[in-house]
Write a structure and sequence with these properties.
Layout lengths: L2 E3 L15 H17 L1 H12 L10 H10 L2 H19 L6 E4 L5 E8 L2 E5 L8 H13 L4 E6 L9 H9 L4 E4 L2 H10 L9 E3 L4 H10 L4 E2 L7 E6 L5 H12 L6 E6 L2 H15 L5 H11 L1 E4 L3 H11 L3 E5 L15 E4 L5 H6 L25 E8 L2 H17 L3 H11 L5
Amino acid sequence: MKIIQVDEHVSLRRDPDSGNEKIQAIVDEIIADVRKDGDEALRAYTEKLDGAALDSLFVSEAERAQAYEAMETKTVEAIRQAIENIRDFHERQRSESWMTTKEDGTILGQQITPLDAVGVYVPGGKAAYPSTILMDVIPAQVANVGRIVMTSPPDESGRLHPAVLVAASELGVDMILKAGGAQAIATLAYGTASVPPVDKIIGPGNSFVALAKRAVFGQVDIDMIAGPSEIVVLADDSARPDYVAADLLSQAEHEERATAIVVTPSTMLAEKVAAEVERQLEDLPRAAIAREALDTFGAIYLTADLYEAVDVVNSLAPEHVEVLCNEPFLYLGKIKHAGAIFLGENSAESVGDYFAGPNHVLPTNGTARFSSPLTVDDFLKKSSIIHYSEEALAENSEMIASLARVEGFEAHARAVEIRHKKDVR
């Protein structure tokens, strides 16, 4: 890995539109076809792009049962325990409607209601991401979303990975669509004869999925346009180089565009981490992917001290920050910009990805400067409640009308005055 002396502002931010013009054109065509031909287009694209000629667009009960037979008992138990942890964390995020009453009879408040329908996209094909299902579905369920539709691309045999089906079944997801890519996003957004449209689409995917989500935004809400995965390790010379290296590789193996960075004032640690990364790469199954990610987007930044190191972390505003320092909690209040903060040597980022409870859907590409992890609130909407009494209107109508007329809206002013004055000309 490159060891770089920090001497200027550093950033993770990349141009999200770079090189996507051709993909966007394909995405737009797919969306138009699904809007026009519905289920027929969905079947056609699934056969063309995924190589699966489907008898049914939906997962059957028999397929669910077969998925359980194919899974090891210990993995099913792990999924169940993860569900318990994640649900417990998100239950603590519940919001309640509220109202307040003033002496003049004014009643003001906020009504909180869940979304009617949410679509959850789960990457698939040869890979399996049951953790995505848990992190996306559980907060929606805690929010009491009325209908949840899951969609995931099938393999060439027209099936989804057993782990995906078990995770969805454990959560009670009834409708599981066998479709991926832009065609699945278009189906969720606009609906077909078989799939009613949803109000919000969440879940990660490749460039086609990301661009399709952006294209349908406005027709539906979306969670975010997620970029490649990121980790920044803030470390002092007390950190174990093998731990740091393992955590860097845990992100670098995601894809060639993943980012893995160490920020430290310790030259000795930097050199040991670089050597340890090379050692651990030797027998890593996804070594080629990880190496390209580290060569392109990996770095070890050397700082003058830990104060400067924290400034660098905040400048990067990464998806994940690990604090592998002698007293990690000392830095918690100083790290302002991060999707998730992992404190101490036992808090590997993998713990958060799968099991601890907090959501692993996190802001990327420097957007932790202004955005947050996925929460229960993302599946709720808020309506303001306003009730004015006759006394309150009489007391305030002149000021309301004055503000309306400053903005040039005479009808707004008269709408108040007609209630307070019996004769308005």
